Amino acid sequence: QVQLVESGGGLVQAGGSLRLACVASGRTDRSYVVAWFRQALGKEREFVSGISGSGDRTYYATSLKGRFTISRDNAKNTVYLQMNSLKPEDTAVYSCAAVHGSSVSDIPVAYAYWGQGTQVTVSS
Q1: What does the angle CA 45 – CA 113 – CA 52 come to, to the nearest 5 degrees?
Q2: Can you list the positions of beta strands (E) in the chain?
Q3: Residues 52-69: what's their mean pLDDT?
Q4: How far apart are CA 110 and CA 43, in angstroms?
């Protein structure tokens, strides 16, 4: 019901910034929550951040709070992830995920719709 496409990934030096975007299409007329996950090579997928349907509630992995900021522009059907002070350990494939009529969860199986992911590489 919802298709998601990520963009904005790339190569950046440590200390730099990137802004990822997740554009939704399909049944965007109903409220949906969005979360960002990431998966580094050889590691499990982990929760990064999430945002409520209206954008009034945001959630972050404790280790990332203060460096990353999630926001959404529902008029553009887009959720953003602003990433600052990037570290090499932030290198991963970043994916956005969504589900209708729910609250933000840090568990991947809670989300029905997933994008294909965008690569973020932070060099030292």
Answers
A1: 85
A2: 2-7, 10-13, 18-26, 32-39, 46-51, 58-60, 68-73, 78-83, 92-100, 113-114, 118-123
A3: 94
A4: 20
Write out the two tokens for 85. Answer: 């002070």
pLDDT tens for 9-35 read 999 999 999 999 999 999 999 999 999
Question: How many angstroms separate the CA atoms of 87 and 16, rounded?
Answer: 8
Give the tokens for residue 42: 């050889």
Q: Is 68 exposed, middle or buried (0-12, 13-18, 19+ CB in 10 A)?
A: buried
65 pLDDT band, cuts 50/70/90, is confident
CB contact at 8 A, 8 and 120: no
Q: What pLDDT digit, counting tens, does each position of 70-85 carry? A: 999 999 999 999 999 9
- For residue 25, what are the contacts with CB-CB under 8 A and spacing of at least 6? 2, 3, 5, 77
